[in-house]
Every structure is written in C-alpha cells, then in structure tokens.
Write a structure and sequence with these properties.
The structure holds 2 protein chains of 2 kinds. Helices cover about 10% and strands about 50% of the residues of chain A. By secondary structure, chain A is mostly beta strands. In chain A, strands 1, 3, 4, 5, 8, 10, 12, 14, 16, 18 and 21 form an 11-stranded mixed β-sheet that branches. In chain A, strands 6-7-2-9-11-13-15-20-17-19 form a 10-stranded mixed β-sheet, with no helix packed on it. In chain B, α10 packs parallel to α12. Classes of the chains: A mainly beta, B mainly alpha.
C-alpha cells in the first residue's frame, strides 16, 4: 500500500513537472529596468480574462491564450495567427504594459513580484483575479467578476455587473479602499482588528457587517439617505468606501 | 504637528520650499524618528509618482506641449493686462497741460479701483498656498489611487480656495475613473454650504456620463434637498438607462418633488 502511494505521488509530481515545462514554453519573461525598485503592471484588454499571482521572482512572467478575433454570428472566436503575445508587451522604466487592441480576445495569466502595483482595465467583458500582490491596485471591468485575495495597499475596484470579492491583509492608515458596482454584490474581508472609517451604501439591496460600526449620534446622520451606513470600526482609520446601486454589500472579518 | 502638517512639510521639503534650518530639521527628524522616516518615504513615493513634480511659478517657463502653450498664453495675458494699464497710468502722470481732464479720469479710476478692491469677493485664490498647491498637483497624478489620495487630502484642509473647488469639479465631471469621481462628489457635498458649490453640483448632473455617479448625485441632491436638480434628472431620464438607474433617478425626482 505504502509503495502504491509513493508511486502515485511520483506519478503526480512527474505529471505536474511535464505540465510546468509545457506551460513554460508559452511563457514570456519580462525583465524590469531596475528590479530593486517597485514595478507596475498596466493591462488594457477589450475582452478576456486576467489572472495575476505574486511569486518570489523578480521578472514579470506572462503567458497568454490568444489573441482571438470574434467569430461570425453563432461561431467560436478564431485565433488571429498574424499576431503573437510579445507584440502586445512593452517595458519602460519598471512599467510593464500590455495593451490588446479592440475586438481582439486575450486570456492572460501573469506572475509578478510580491510588491507590485497593478492597473487592470477590461473595456467589455472578462473576469479578473489577483492573488497575494502587495501594492496599489486600480482594477475596472464593465462586465465580469473581480476577485482579489490576500492583498495589501490602496485598492480601487469598479465594475457594472459581476461580483466583487476583496480579501485584504492589514491596510495601513494612509491607504484607502474604494469598491463600487452598479449591479454587483460586493464582499470585503478585513482583519478583525482593522481600524477604518467606513462608508457603505447599497441603494436597492442590503448591507451586512460582521464589524460593529460606530455611527455616532443619530442627529449627525443625513436623514434622507436611509440605505447608507457611515461610521468607524475599531476607532477609525483607513478610509473605506463601498457602493453598489443594486447589489448587497458584505463587510466580513477574516478568520 | 498634525499628520496633514507633517505631510505638507515633507512635500515642501521635496519641492525645495524650506529654509536651511527647516531642511535640517526635516533631515534630523528622519534620522531620529523611524515613524517620521516611514512617513517621509511614503510621501516621497507619492510625490515621485506625480506627473507634475511641481506647479510652476509664473516665472517658470515650461518647454513643450499644451502646458507650455497654456503658460505662454497666460503670461501674454498677464503681461498685456499689467503693462497696458501701467503704461496708461504712467502716461497720465506726464505733465500735459492740454489734457488736464485726464487727472480727473485718473482720480475717478482710482476711486473705482479702490471700491473694487474693497468689495471684491473674499474667495479670490490665495497664491502660493503650499497646502492647496500640493493638492492641486496631486489631483493631476496619473494613478487613480494618487488622485483618490489627493481628494482625501482636500477633506483635511482647513480652508479650501476656489482653485481647489474648480479642480474638484473638473475631477467630478471628467476623471476617467468612476471611483475617483464618487469620492470627489463626497468631498464636494461636504462643501455644499457654499452656494457656488451647490450650484456647481446641480450643473454637474447633466454633464455626468457615469451611471454610478448619476445615482450618487441623486443621493447628494436628496441629502441637500435641492429641488433645482429635478429638471436635470428629468433631462437625464430622456436618455436610455440601465433599468436600476432609471428606477433610482425616477424615485429621486418623485422624492424631490414632494419636498
């Protein structure tokens, strides 16, 4: 039995290695001008998904699926063989830029150093996922889910439809979080001892909070806006603004 | 010192606005206080991220682009204004018996000028106020997070002059990032005791192309109980909207009409 388990583990490891080698073939490594200084990644897409994961290296490693041209009515998108991934990437003074022309469809998976700033914009549709990145982040998509996990720094996130989930590490006093959506449900997870001034608003849905929010005395609140919660958690600190017109808002404690 | 004062002092240091003693004080604080050193590097990082390192003085001459054109235009205007008036005044002081009447004109002009100076609005921009200048520069930051920080700064300023208010309205109406617009709207609502800000907010409604900010403006108008905004919301409702924004604006109009 033990032998079988060992064999199975070896087989899995071997399989994973093969997959890594396979994907490495498609990866492009972008070197920063000065790896000792903080870098920034800026992506502009029209349609497509973006996944960013922090890793221990110094380069930005890009792998992409595409570009595809939109198929004719009822048909699948067609791979545009006239363009390759490297055509869209540039690096200047630690700013790595990926700009995909309108109507091209591209799915990107990118590894960045842990301390990195991100500016990610998808003009039409696609999900955006970011994991473990510590740096200022500006993320917007018209239609798509935005999921940020284990993040540090100032964060600005905005979409029209799709859920927004943001899981933050301790946020320092001078950072700020601004999350907004027209229709999406927004979930913000914070460390339980996070100090913050919060402003939460959902026009047509509900606000749920694990935190005790000190809203001050009743006469300080504007009476006309009933679906808004303004107050301090843990005595006040970082500025947090969360607004969804049609979606619920959840403010949760990280466990 | 309050936090904002410390930040302003560091910004002044970075822009070379401090005297020798003040510079030494900042450098000394950096060495003895880790908290100050951390603050210093944070402000420095924000400052270095700015598009515009410094708001140029009138004498500074930008070299290229739109800024240079604008500056040249402003300088020409300034030059034209001051020099023409000065020449005319100087000419009046030359003794010319034939034109004695000119002295009367001069006296009347001086009286008028005095009256204008006495009666002019109190909110004329204060030149070279370092806090406000720094905030104006920060509002031009290329990063949305930098601009959000600038808007938050304005809420901590003791006084906000008309230049900052104009910059906030420009941000509300044209910033490419919806979150920056939302936070700017909040900052302006805090200043709505000023009738100009109130009127500016009403004017901003029809200029607003973001549905999210239109919904936020609706709340702002309800909070300010501003009936004058009804016409603008009705105008917005003539365009096609997301159903939820349509509902929000219709509700707002209804509520405002019953006030």
């Amino acid at each position: 039995m033990k032998r079988n388990v060992s064999l199975l583990i070896i087989a899995i490891v071997a399989l994973l290695n093969i997959q890594t080698v396979k994907s490495q073939n498609k990866e492009l490594s972008v070197k920063l001008t000065d790896p000792a200084k903080a870098g920034k990644l800026s992506i502009e897409l029209f349609v497509g998904s973006i996944k960013i994961v922090a890793y221990a290296g110094k380069d930005v490693i890009v792998s992409g699926d595409g570009p595809y041209l939109p198929g004719k009515a009822g048909q699948n998108p067609v791979r545009d063989s006239t363009k390759k991934l490297s055509d869209f990437i540039s690096q200047d003074n630690n700013l790595v830029r990926i700009k995909v022309e309108k109507f091209d469809i591209m799915n990107l998976v990118i590894k960045v150093p842990r301390n990195f700033s991100l500016v990610l914009k998808t003009q039409a549709q696609g999900n955006i996922d970011v994991e473990n990145v510590n740096g200022d982040q500006e993320i917007s998509v018209v239609s798509g889910n935005i999921t940020l996990f284990n993040i540090g720094g100032s964060v600005s996130v905005n979409n029209t439809t799709g859920t927004i989930k943001v899981d933050m590490n301790a946020v320092n006093m001078n950072a700020h979080l601004v999350l907004s959506s027209v229709m999406g449900t927004i979930t913000l997870k914070l460390p339980s001892d996070q100090k913050a001034n919060v402003k939460l608003q959902s026009d047509f849905a509900a606000i749920h909070s694990d935190f005790d929010i000190d809203e001050g005395s009743a006469d300080q609140k504007p009476k006309s806006i009933i679906h808004r919660t303004i107050g301090k958690i843990n005595g006040g600190g970082t500025e947090i603004y969360v607004k969804s017109v049609g979606g619920d808002i959840y403010l949760k404690k990280k466990k | 010192m309050e936090e904002i004062d410390i930040e302003i002092k560091i910004l002044d240091y970075l822009q070379g606005r401090l005297s020798g003693t003040e510079r030494k004080e900042v450098e000394h604080l950096q060495q003895i206080s880790p908290a100050f050193a951390a603050k210093f590097s944070e402000v420095k990082q924000v400052w270095e991220g700015l598009d515009l390192r410094e708001v140029p003085d009138i004498s500074a001459e930008p070299t290229t682009g739109f800024e240079a054109m604008l500056k040249t235009f402003e300088l020409e205007q300034e030059h034209r204004k001051t020099h023409t008036v000065w020449r005319q005044l100087a000419a009046l002081f030359v003794y010319r018996p034939k034109y004695n009447w000119a002295y009367s004109v001069l006296l009347i002009s001086m009286g008028a000028l005095g009256a204008w100076l006495y009666l002019k609005p109190a909110d004329t921009p204060v030149p070279n106020d370092p806090q406000q200048t720094s905030v104006l520069a920060m509002l031009k930051n290329a990063d949305a997070n930098g601009r959000l920080k600038a808007v938050n700064y304005t809420q901590r300023l003791r006084q906000v002059n008309s230049k900052v208010i104009d910059a906030l309205f420009l941000t509300l109406n044209t910033d490419p990032n919806e979150n920056v617009r939302l936070v700017t709207l909040d900052a302006l609502v805090q200043l709505a005791d000023d009738p100009k800000v109130r009127a500016g907010l009403v004017n901003a409604i029809i200029k607003q192309d973001s549905e999210l900010v239109q919904a936020a403006l609706a709340d702002a108008m309800l909070q300010l109980q501003e009936k004058k905004s009804v016409k603008s919301f009705k105008k917005l409702l003539e365009e096609r909207k997301s159903p939820i924004i349509q509902k929000k604006l219709e509700q707002t109009v209804q509520q405002l009409e019953t006030i």
